[in-house]
Specification:
Strand content: under 5%
Mean pLDDT: 77
Helix content: 40-55%
Low-confidence stretches: 365-435, 481-520
Number of helices: 30
Largest sheet: 2 strands, antiparallel
Radius of gyration: 41 Å
Strand order of the largest sheet: 1-2
Number of strands: 8
Length: about 525
């Protein structure tokens, strides 16, 4: 195509062969065609490739044409055009950015609550807005903060403000931490989307004057938040980022329920974070609490280490035990060792305890607790995840696999030779390959080699002593060629017969006697 064509449309571009579409430049299209192209799935990909340089890149004139054609709020909220706009933001100069910003004012809330517009607004915070522009956008969003933090799309904008411009987070702090606030911080922490906002505030806003007030509010409500599906994440982040508050405020608030919280699905995560981040003094207190003797009962440590959730904070605390505490924990465990070793959570804690205590714990094999169980075979052996059974139990595969005593016992010769571990049963019932038979044949072949050499030596000695013996041997070989067998009988070993559904062995001959064997 040469020059711009006013009648060139999206349909014209789609009718072009795929190999020639990339040859069409933006400068050859009218603005209406560019707008149609950006809102089409294939056209959007084409324009994105042009902007990123994968299809030759853009000239300055073509970039100006895209800015003038696409920089409106309608394209910001379009399903496909928003991706073109986001790519274009990364290439704009200062003058072009000013044009984009001027089109945004008055539409920030609409963009923030739109599934496509919120992505564009986040990209503007990163690549387009200056510090003044960010402050102005926050002021425009401030009346809608309560709605935005609990909105499926709007919460992403507030998170972006907290991460990129924490100096402008007053709109969030003042909304939820003032005495006159309509929604308190704990209600926000237990919300599906609001919990993300409080977590980011705990991570990025440590210098704000109301930060300590927020942490105290979280600590005062630590019990209810730790038990909540979303609130427990807020307490975890507060513990990670405020170790002092974790030891002095959050741990005392949970002390009375520490054992129960250690075994709770959500609260156990909080206890584990406390063990890791609250400091050595706090972790020692937690260890002593779990190891303490209980009048009329057993130490809490036994219940916690065998619990599906409690074993995780228990493992963390075991890793922080000193030698004296580890020995005490071992003495508590020893009377209940058999019971603990049968449970997967208890096994994990035993492995962790094994690394800390100088006392040798039994029932360990290569650093792991053995599963002590009885297989279906006669022996007692290691019971694995997929059914490894005792000494004579054998493996069982998906469709038969190896079978032990109850399976095929192999080929029996004159002396009752048994194949190794029985035969192998495959997918076809009755077809098998006796590995023991193959090994027996190999052994007999190896034994026959020196015997043949000895016989040859004896034959040469006889030929030297009896000159007429050679003629007799020639005559005997002629008779053998006619079908008469002389000498000792040769043993023929049966081979597996592979049929479609039935298996058996050929007959075995020993001398002149015929004997049929039953493979089962």
């Amino acid at each position: 195509m040469e020059g711009a064509s006013s009648d060139f449309t999206l349909k014209s571009w789609l009718n072009l062969p795929h190999g020639t579409r990339e040859a069409v430049r933006v400068s050859q299209m009218p603005p209406a065609c560019i707008a149609e192209l950006a809102c089409h799935k294939e056209g959007s990909h084409y324009l994105q490739n042009l902007i990123t340089g994968q299809s030759g890149g853009l000239t300055f004139e073509e970039q100006e044409l895209l800015v003038s054609s696409l920089m409106t709020v309608d394209f910001f909220c379009n399903k496909f055009a928003n991706y073109v706009v986001q790519k274009l933001f990364e290439t704009l100069n200062m003058q072009q950015k000013a044009v984009v910003v001027s089109m945004t004012w008055g539409h920030c809330y609409k963009l923030a609550t739109d599934p496509c517009g919120d992505r564009v607004l986040q990209k503007m915070f990163e690549h387009v807005f200056t510090e003044e522009d960010r402050a102005k956008c926050c002021e425009e969003l401030k009346p809608h903060v309560v709605e935005l933090v609990t909105n499926e799309h709007g919460n992403h904008i507030i998170q972006k403000v907290i991460e990129i411009a924490p100096e402008h987070t007053a709109l969030v702090f003042e909304t939820f931490l003032q005495p006159t606030a309509k929604v308190d911080i704990c209600a926000l922490a237990t919300h599906q989307y609001g919990t993300r906002i409080v977590q980011n505030m705990a991570r990025h806003c440590k210098t704000h004057q109301l930060y300590n007030s927020m942490v105290k509010e979280i600590a005062d409500n630590a019990k209810s938040l730790s038990l909540d599906h979303y609130g427990n994440y807020v307490v975890q982040v507060a513990v990670e980022n405020c170790p002092e508050a974790a030891a002095n405020l959050i741990l005392p608030a949970l002390w009375d329920t520490l054992k129960d919280f250690s075994c709770h699905k959500f609260a156990s995560h909080v206890v584990e974070k406390l063990a890791r981040h609250a400091g050595p003094e706090a972790s020692n207190k937690m260890i002593d609490y779990l190891l303490a003797d209980i009048e009329g009962g057993q130490p809490y440590f036994l219940d916690v280490m065998c619990d599906d959730f409690g074993n995780y904070p228990a493992q963390t605390l075991i890793g922080q035990m000193n030698e004296e505490q580890a020995v005490k924990a071992t003495n508590i465990v020893m009377p209940k060792l058999d019971e603990i070793a049968k449970k997967a959570p208890g096994q994990r804690c035993l492995i962790a305890l094994k690394k800390k205590t100088p006392i040798e714990l039994p029932f360990f094999h290569n650093g792991e607790v053995e599963h002590r169980g009885k297989g279906k075979g006669k022996g007692k052996g290691f019971k694995g995840d997929k059914g490894f059974k005792g000494d004579k139990g054998g493996f069982k595969g998906d469709k038969g696999g190896y079978k032990g005593d109850r399976g095929f016992k192999g080929f029996k010769g004159d002396k009752g030779f048994k194949g190794d571990k029985g035969g192998f049963k495959g997918k076809n019932k009755g077809s098998f390959n006796n590995m023991g038979m193959q090994q027996q044949q190999q052994m007999q072949q190896n034994q026959q080699v020196p015997m043949q050499l000895q016989q040859q030596v004896q034959l040469l000695q006889q030929l030297q002593q009896q000159p007429n013996l050679l003629a007799q041997l020639v005559a005997a070989s002629q008779l053998q060629g006619q079908g008469q067998v002389q000498g000792q009988g040769q043993q023929m070993q049966g081979q597996a017969y592979r049929g479609s559904g039935q298996g058996g062995f050929n007959d075995q001959f020993q001398g002149n006697q015929q004997q049929r064997f039953n493979p089962y």
